[in-house]
Design a protein that fits this description.
It contains eleven helices and nine strands. By secondary structure, the protein is α/β, with parallel strands linked by helices. A six-stranded mixed β-sheet has the order 1-2-3-4-6-9, sandwiched between helices. A three-stranded mixed β-sheet has the order 5-7-8. Helix 9 runs antiparallel to helix 10. The relative contact order is 0.11.
């Protein structure tokens, strides 16, 4: 689905997805939600794209759901007809990373969109919060699941129950935000991080990313077993080690995944062990 309410641009191997409703602080209506879900599904299916950056047009990331549309009942009808989240992509489990670039407000459903991202870069004057607490609307896009996993149950309960604003400075201190920037620089910094990630061998990185997501809530042994099973699916484990032994990838320099300057030892295949 294409919509003027969501813009999609590419920057090398990074896709930039932007909510484009600045006049209403990028509030998400049904059309916007459907366009966001479609954009991230297309990103996930495109082998030429490695990282997505998710942002909002203008001075605000997203102020939440479009309450005018919600009050009319039009949003609820879509919720029953779609397997996507009310805000769009929040029920998608992508195979590649998404970085949120956050300016201004990321509140209510917009807070949940930010929580859906793997990483969050925020301007130091950004504001987060469960502002929907003020008008009696519950979280429904993963906020009650992802927030405690990021900041702990105690902090999550306090933030969710009071609905108070959380400054970007505090968000960084408690692990909700990964990097702070000056106002107007969040997208630039997010793209820099995306370039760093995109330059790395992707298979192992994405397997580790998925294992980190999936271990949440698992007993230690099950989480360790899942990590090992994931690692066996990585391509070129031995050739990667051989490249390091031969002097490649040292001093912080990544080795391209298709670099075959050192071949994998013959007769070695990845498979389950007893």
């Amino acid at each position: 689905m294409t919509s003027s309410k969501v813009t999609v641009t590419s920057n090398n191997s990074t896709l930039v997805v932007t909510i484009n409703r600045p006049a209403v602080r990028n509030a998400v209506d049904n059309e916007t939600a459907e366009a966001l879900a479609a954009a991230f599904k297309a990103f996930n299916a495109n082998p030429n794209l490695k990282v997505a950056v998710f942002t909002g047009a203008g001075a605000c990331f997203c102020a939440g759901a479009d309450l005018n549309e919600m009050a009319s009942g039009a949003r609820r009808k879509r919720w029953h007809e779609s397997t996507d989240g009310p805000m769009g992509p929040t029920r998608l489990a992508l195979s590649k990373p998404v970085i949120g670039a956050i300016e201004g407000y990321a509140v209510a459903g917009g807070f949940e969109l930010a929580l859906w991202c793997d990483l969050r870069v925020a301007a130091d004057n950004a504001v987060f919060g469960v502002f929907n607490r003020r008008w009696g609307v519950p979280l429904m896009d993963g906020g009650t699941v992802r927030l405690p996993r990021l900041v702990g149950v105690g902090r999550a309960l306090e933030i969710a129950m009071t609905g108070r604003p959380v400054s970007a400075i505090e968000a960084h201190q408690i692990g909700l935000v990964n990097a702070l920037t000056a106002p107007g620089r969040a997208l630039e910094r997010a793209l820099e991080i995306a370039d760093t990630i995109a330059a790395l061998p992707q298979s192992a990185m994405n397997l580790d990313r998925q294992a980190i997501h999936r271990q949440v809530g698992l007993p230690l042994k099950d989480a360790m077993d899942a990590e090992f099973i994931h690692s066996l699916a990585a391509q070129g484990v031995e050739s990667g080690a051989s490249r390091f032994v031969h002097g490649l990838g040292r001093h912080g320099a990544p080795v391209a995944e298709n670099d075959r300057s050192v071949t994998e030892p013959p007769g070695i295949t990845a498979g389950p062990t007893q």
